[in-house]
Amino acid sequence: MNQYFNKLNETLRNHERAIPFLLIDLDRLDQNIAELKDQLRSDQFFRIVVKSLPSIDLIDYVMEKADTKKLMVFHQPFLSDLVRWLDAEADILMGKPLPIKTVAYFYDAFEKANEKGDFNPFTQVQWLVDTFERLEQFIDLSDKLGVKFRVNLEIDVGLHRGGFSNLESLIVALEVIKANANKLEFSGLMGYDPHVVKLPGIVRSRKKAFDMANDFYTQCKELLKSEFPELYHEDLTFNGAGSPTLSLHRSNESPLNDVSAGSCLVKPTTFDVDTLREFIPATFIAAPVLKKLQGTNLPAAEKAMGLLNFFNSSHEMSYFLYGGFWKADFFHPKGVKQNSMFVSTNQTLLNAAASVKLDVDDFVFLRPHQSEFVFLQFGQILTIRDGEIEGQWSILDQSM
Question: Is this model's pTM higher than 0.90 or not?
Fold first, then answer.
């Protein structure tokens, strides 16, 4: 691993400028994409979670490598940015319900932008609906716009974050859709199950939680097929999973034909879980060292610092970094730690023993805790292949 980061450090030191960079290693990304494809059943589609990979270039790369045109979107500005370049084969499932005024805003902005691409925002977007009230709002908006909306119903498979939690309420929702066939088109179900992996075993075993989630999902599908045959067809989207439970849904017991994931492809630290052991970290933050000082000297603690430095070898050297305070862990070089008393987003203080090899203009490497928030703090992504910079990717537009 030292050799890997030593080469990256040399590459970045020779780059045209030195600022904090977000890096994606394309070799590692390719390996993760291949692993994901191996974990899918032959009857399952892969849907890219956009919030976890918020870059058009990155999404386009994964779409091609993973052979998918299916996306899950959580943020209206991202949706507005994406639809400008997606083609007629793309299918978007919203990952959370949006306020109806935001839905209306999206369509109004789309028309005002005079989009002339192949993407049809009325037939290629599945809007997630979690309540009867939201169904009624879509019916009202349909009257105003004179269009039909595709709606996917969120079901509660155990996370308890909303959605239809019993068959009785699901029946009522399906009846509403059936009665408004000229305004609403049923597109499927979505049940998110991260709790299956995150629940402490003493509370409920993973197998029990997974079986309970699948049982309710299967009951919903059987109800749909038997009681609402006019709404059921083979092209419906039965979505679920997420990176932590992706591997579990390889089981033939899984009712899903549509599996969402994104973070596992770049694997930030939050996703260092046993179900993702085959995936490897593919994204890093690299920030240059601005200052190197002997010992550690903090404001108003000058007299005490000499004693601390003497007894604590990890404070033998101080380094001030270009930037800091990201949601990330310092990863390389080993032995470098953030000083908890001098944390800054501008020049954060790092400490290390004198044996750690680190100089001014060297880069320190961090692993993000997550991708969806951290990526948005950088204006660009540097792509790396075989330790060399291959290109530069942009982040999705949040202003639309």
Answer: yes
